[in-house]
Amino acid sequence: MTIGAVTAPHGVRGEVRVMPLTDFPDRFFELERVFVVKGDERVERRVLGVKTLSRGLFLLRLEGVDCREDAETLRGAEIQVPRADVVPLPPGVYYVFELVGARVITPEGAFLGRLEDVLTTAANDVYVVKDDGGREILIPAVKHVVRSIDVERGEIVVDPPPGLLEG
Q1: Does residue 90 fall inside a structural domain?
Q2: Do residues 18 and 45 both lie within one domain?
Q3: Which end of the chain is more exposed for a tag (fewer CB within 10 A), N or C?
Q4: pTM beyond 0.90, yes or no
Q5: Among residues 60, 79, 80, which one has the least CA distance to residue 13?
Q6: Domain final residue pick, 49, 64, 85
Q7: How open is the CA angle 71-76-77, to the nearest 5 degrees?
Q8: What is the CATH number of the domain that holds 70?
Q9: Exposed (0-12), middle (13-18) or buried (19+): which is 106, by Cβ within 10 Å?
Q10: Same domain for 113 and 75?
Q11: Is 154 contained in some domain?
C-alpha cells in the first residue's frame, strides 16, 4: 500500500523529501522498513531516520541511499508498506485498495461491472465502475445507494437511483 511519494532529494547525504499519501501521516515515525517503488523496480529498504519538514512533508533517510545522486534517482518513487502493516480502520470504513477490482452488482444480482477507482469529492466519494463493454458508470458512495460491501468476497451491492444506468 502506498503511503507516500518521493518529491525530491534533500541535502547531500541521501535524504529524500516525501509527501505523505495517507490519512495517518504519524505512521512515518514508526516505520522500520519500506518498499521503494519506481517503474518496475521494487526495493525493500530499512528506514534509518525520519524528520518532519514544513508543509506537511517528511524527510526520510533510507539504507543504501548515501548521497544526493542516489536520492535523485528516487525522485517520483512511491513509498509503500505491506498490506499487513496498514492502520486498521473502524468497521464499515475501507481502504480504496480493498475495493478496487470488486464486482459491483444490484440487489437483484445483476452485474454492473468492476470498481476501477474511487473519486473523492466535496460531497461524497464516487465509485467509478467499468462494465464489460468498457463503459464507465459513476455511482455515488452514499448509504442509500451502496447497500453492502463484502471485502472478502470482493463484492459491492448497489441500488442505483432511477436514471443512473440509462444513457
Answers
A1: no
A2: yes
A3: C
A4: no
A5: 60
A6: 85
A7: 75
A8: 2.40.30.60
A9: middle
A10: no
A11: yes
Asked if residue 147 and residue 109 are part of one domain, the reply reads: yes
Q: What is the Cβ-side half-sphere exposure of residue 150, based on CA atoms within 13 angstroms?
A: 9
Q: Could you report the per-residue pLDDT of 32-81, keeping only the tens digit for each?
A: 999 999 999 999 999 999 999 888 899 999 999 999 999 999 999 999 99
Cβ pair 71, 61 in contact under 8 A:
no
pLDDT tens, residue by residue, 110-127 = 999 999 999 988 889 999
What cell does 50 get? 525520519
Residue type present at position 91: P
The dihedral of CA 71, 77, 79, 81: what is its sign?
negative
Beta-carbon contacts of residue 46 (< 8 Å; ≥ 6 apart): 32, 33, 62, 63
Under DSSP, is residue 95 helix (H, G, I), strand (E, B) or coil? coil
Looking at residue 112, which CATH number applies to its domain?
2.30.30.240
- In terms of residue numbers, what domain contains 64? 2-85
